[in-house]
Amino acid sequence: MGEIRSERIAEAIRKEVSELIQKEMKDPRIGFITITRVLVTDDLRFADIYYSILGSEEDRKRTLEGLRSAAGFLRKEIGQRLRLRFTPELRFNFDRSIAYSAHIAEVLEKLKKEKKSNQ
């Protein structure tokens, strides 16, 4: 039963964080960002927020700094909007899956072009 609740809360947190970043935050370090998923511990003490951006390693570092700087604001807003008894501590992690998928697509496209040129 607790697992279902933590999944519902994780999805609600994902939606709220996405909306807050898009509409409320004005930090120039945070550009176009996608919140890919949120995992909440069963005791609801921590929420691991996975995000993705396209850009260089420097862009990723700046975005992480901006997110960590805004963690208090985001946590306070989530607590108010979701009316949780205890708002989880937010931990941000870069999600490499989208970048990896883009890399795989590039490699496949390159192989496809090489195959055509060899025929």
Describe it for me?
The chain is an alpha+beta fold. It has a single domain, classed as GMP Synthetase, Chain A, domain 3 (2-Layer Sandwich), CATH 3.30.300. 58% of the residues lie in helices and 17% in strands. The protein has helices spanning 2-23, 57-69, 71-82, 97-118; strands at 34-40, 46-52, 89-94. It has a 3-stranded mixed sheet with strand order 1-2-3, with helices on both faces. Helix 1 (2-23) packs across helix 3. It is elongated, with a radius of gyration of 18 Å. The model has no long low-confidence stretch (mean pLDDT 89).
Question: Briefly, what is this?
Answer:
The chain is an alpha+beta fold and 119 residues long. It has helices spanning 2-23, 57-69, 71-82, 97-118; strands at 34-40, 46-52, 89-94.
Q: Which features does this protein show?
A:
single chain; 119 residues; alpha+beta; GMP Synthetase, Chain A, domain 3; three-stranded mixed sheet; 3 strands; 58% helix; elongated
In CATH, the architecture is 2-Layer Sandwich
What does the main sheet amount to? 3 strands, mixed
User: Helix proportion of residues, in percent?
Assistant: 55-70%
The fold-level CATH name is GMP Synthetase, Chain A, domain 3
Distance between the termini: 58 Å
Question: How many β-strand stretches?
Answer: 3
Shape: elongated
Number of helices: 4
Order of helices and strands: HEEHHEH
Q: How are the strands ordered across the major sheet?
A: 1-2-3
- What is the residue-mean pLDDT, rounded to a whole number? 89
Judged by helices, strands and strand pairing, the structural class is: alpha+beta
Poorly predicted regions are none
